[in-house]
Design brief:
Layout lengths: L1 H20 L1 E5 L6 E2 L15 E5 H6 L3 E2 L5
Parallel strand pairs: 2-4
Antiparallel strand pairs: 1-3
């Protein structure tokens, strides 16, 4: 039982770290202030420019915050 719990914790930790360190999507249109975990997020549906893939760190450095649809 301890092995199963340990394995589950390891998998969740790895998934969380990978998700948080990965790339996100942003719109560079006028007034864009959010980042998105998925390119198909409905928050990007009105983007007036190309959708760009950047690191989460870069998006946060740009002052972006998580889209409300993905919160």
């Amino acid at each position: 039982m301890k092995l199963v719990i340990s394995l589950i914790i390891s998998i969740l930790s790895f998934a969380s770290a990978s998700f948080n360190d990965g790339d996100v999507y942003i719109c560079k249109g006028k007034g864009s202030k959010k980042y998105h975990y998925t390119k198909s997020c409905r928050g990007l549906s009105r983007c007036s420019t190309k959708v760009y893939e950047v690191s989460l760190k870069k998006a946060k450095e740009m002052g972006r915050t998580l889209c409300g649809w993905e919160d």
